[in-house]
Amino acid sequence: MYHSVDHFDEDPHLVTVSPARFERQLAWLRARDLRGVGMRELLDAHAAGRGRGLVGLTFDDGYADFATRAVPALLRYGFGATVFVVSGRIGTYNAWDDGPRKPLMTADQIRTVAGAGIEVASHGRHHVSLPRTDDTELREELEESRAALEELVDGQITGFAYPYGHATSREIDAVRAAGYDYACDITPEAPSRHALPRTYVGDRDGPLRMRAKVVRHELRRRSRV
Ligand SMILES: [Zn+2]
Asked: In this protein, which residues make up the domain named NodB homology (predicted)?
């Protein structure tokens, strides 16, 4: 689970990985015969028994640096990824965050990354914590974001990521009912296709920490099979 790939001076919420570190992390994966892919490809491959050696790479919030820095590096490695876009904030900035302002992808940038084979998925409309919404707002966050993104990329949107990783059984049921095929959580109490666990990767993650995170994630994944 990544957010932003960019140079930074301050990063209080630890959401930014420097371009040089990101490049080394991709090289680290490739050196171990691991290939980064989007979540839809990862889930399809697992279902077909071809999941070995694949690592799902996700980028939350849809920062502009995803288009300008992350995607060019991913494509150089032949990797894919999923980007979770906040549909009501396209072309603006991370107004929900009290950290440094970061620009979000424009509609053109989103169409360009989709055209490059990157999976575009939904992170809701306004990046609100879904357990705090009423039923109408919850439905709008899920259904309107999906419809807006489908129109934007002229294709199906099948994935969702819960803002802040906040999801109770109510939100998980609502995401399923809204027609999403899968959803990414962070540390779900009961992992499922609509509450997939993810592992945070940050700027401090060099080879030793990467290795520990891969092992831990694999144990976590297997323990529920
Ligand atoms: Zn987010």
From this structure: 53-225
